[in-house]
Amino acid sequence: MTTCASEYCNAGWAEVLTHMSPYGYANFGIAFGLGLSVVGAAWGIWLTGSSLVGAAVKAPRIRSKNLISVIFCEATAIYGVIMAIILANKVKAPDEPTSQLDELWDFNGYYYAGYGMFSSGLSVGLTNIASGVSVGIAGSSCAIADAQDASLFVKILIVEIFASALGIFGIIVGIIQSNACTFPIASLE
User: Fold this and answer.
1) Are 25 and 117 in contact (CB under 8 A)?
2) Count H helices, E strands: the chain?
3) Rg of the chain taking only CA atoms, in angstroms
4) Where in this chain does the record put each V-ATPase proteolipid subunit C-like domain (predicted)?
5) How many CB atoms lie within 10 A of CB 30?
6) Residue 67 near residue 160 (C-beta atoms within 8 A)
């Protein structure tokens, strides 16, 4: 195994992560927030949809009214889109394109903003995975129970609403985390 003799080589993952641009961290936060939210929504729709189709064989009347479960799952993806828009509006491009930051730049401010946006996006994404799965499981139970007894629909739907609230709590936490995350304006004087 040969080692790279260039000054642009990384010794390992620790060096990659400690030398990554704050813009990179911010954009990864946006990507994780949006991507994981979509994964949570898809997972929930998969859980709910398969049970809905299976239970609708026994009781076709449940097809349309149990689509609310799919809508609740899709809301988790929408929470990720909202957070991605909020975070993307906080990323300000530098005045001049450069591969190295100038000595006069506020390094602490940039890294604070980058890490804050990364943690905000990651927390929203992970929360929305949990929300999507829990809404999917509750929606699956709702479809199966509704096929057996129509009076159970509203009772289980309340549980599903509380499961969906996890995603709302996640986006609130993400907004609070990202409030102070603004890239500073560079002064090259």
Assistant:
1) yes
2) 6, 0
3) 22
4) 28-87, 119-176
5) 25
6) no
The pLDDT tens digits for 72-125 are 999 999 999 999 999 999 987 766 666 666 677 777 888 899 999 999 999 999
Distance (Å, whole) CA 166 – CA 77: 13
Rounded Cα distance between 127 and 12, Å, is 30
Tokens representing residue 31 in the block: 């990507």
Residue 28 CB-density burial (10 A; 0-12 exposed, 13-18 middle, 19+ buried): middle
Task: Report yes or no: 48 and 143 within 8 Å, Cβ to Cβ.
Answer: yes
**In 10 A of CB 127, how many CB atoms?**
27
| Identity of the amino acid at 92 | K
Q: Which domains does the chain have, with CATH numbers?
A: 22-89+104-180 (1.20.120.610)
Q: Classify residue 185 as exposed, middle or buried by CB count within 10 Å of its CB (0-12, 13-18, 19+).
A: exposed
